[in-house]
């Protein structure tokens, strides 16, 4: 048809469809295109500003740790519960987020901190190799209702492995975190410090059954339970007639003992008969041990009561050990060397408030521990904290304890303190 005088131009298919739609579909009132303003949501700018501040703080700390020679790592959020929970202790186990994993017949755990995850990263490199790592990201912990504390919050920190000079490395980590806080605008702080190697060395130096020593170490982080065990060690409670009868049969007639347990009634809870028998054996062992001398318990109490400026606390601890004839020289000399190293960083040793009963709430620590707060902010979460955990490396597979220490800063707590 092209060129025929009566031919009209055929419009493109899209235009044909549009015309047909206009003819066939019901007509709608004509609407002019206009920009619709989104109403301003109250608080939106504040939320955005807070997120920008947090992002900026994380970038600042990441660059700061990188400049100090730490390698950034990004551990996973989820781990097998059995990998983490045995290391953290009762307090943090109760606050962990756990999820059933039917495929593995296990539980998954959201990381409650970074120390164990970063140690697992280092394990892949090899325990015999030194390592210095930095990290940042969220951690997850259940919180008591009414406190207003978040269950998810950010941490940015460092972990070091394999340094031979423990005292100097402890000082390095604390000094670096103090510098990091200054980078963020925090200058006036209070530092609480402890050293678990001192009370643990005291327990090792005193003559007592190994089971008693292990129980006291395990409950160091729970002062009430610790004191109950200590008092019972000095003055063992008189067993009930029924318990005394069971304990008397231990080691003599196992069949009669098992029968006695079964005759006592149905076993309630997760423990089986073998668990009950094992507990009876442990109680019998405890009952056969001589009581702890009152002087030993008094020395433990006196040591744990030491608190004050670090140099004065060191002097008091040396005096108590010397008076009791207990050799704590190695632990106390390391304490003194740490204070000397801090002086080299311009940190006055008397600015540290040493508390011999302070251990933080993480039961993998076994040496120097510390927390940093804004001055006069004792009721608020710490701005930073950390400590030494050499023995934990053995529980993660090392053939012997590997020097390990680290610490973290809580950026959100810092920004709140600056607000």
Cα distance, first to last residue?
A: 80 Å
Strand content: 15-25%
User: Which blocks of ≥5 consecutive residues have pLDDT under 50?
Assistant: 1-10, 28-33
What composes the largest sheet?
9 strands, mixed
Order of SSEs: HHEEHHEEHEEHEHHHHHHHEHHEEEHEH
Order of strands, main sheet, comes to: 1-5-6-12-11-10-7-9-8
Number of strands: 12
Mean pLDDT: 85
Coarse structural class: alpha+beta
Walk me through the topology.
Elements lengths: L12 H12 L19 H24 L3 E2 L5 E3 H8 L1 H5 L3 E4 L4 E5 L4 H11 L5 E10 L11 E10 L4 H18 L5 E7 L1 H9 L4 H9 L4 H12 L6 H9 L4 H10 L9 H16 L5 H11 L2 E3 H15 L4 H16 L7 E4 L12 E7 L9 E5 L3 H4 L8 E6 L1 H8 L1
Parallel strand pairs: 1-5, 7-9
Antiparallel strand pairs: 2-4, 3-4, 5-6, 6-12, 7-10, 8-9, 10-11, 11-12
Helix pairs in contact: 6-15, 8-9, 14-15
Keywords:
17 helices; three-stranded antiparallel sheet; alpha+beta; about 425 residues
What does this structure look like?
With 419 residues, the protein is an alpha+beta fold. It contains 17 helices and twelve strands. The strands form two sheets. It has a nine-stranded mixed sheet with strand order 1-5-6-12-11-10-7-9-8, sandwiched between helices. It has a three-stranded antiparallel sheet with strand order 2-4-3, with helices on one face. The protein is globular. The termini are far apart.
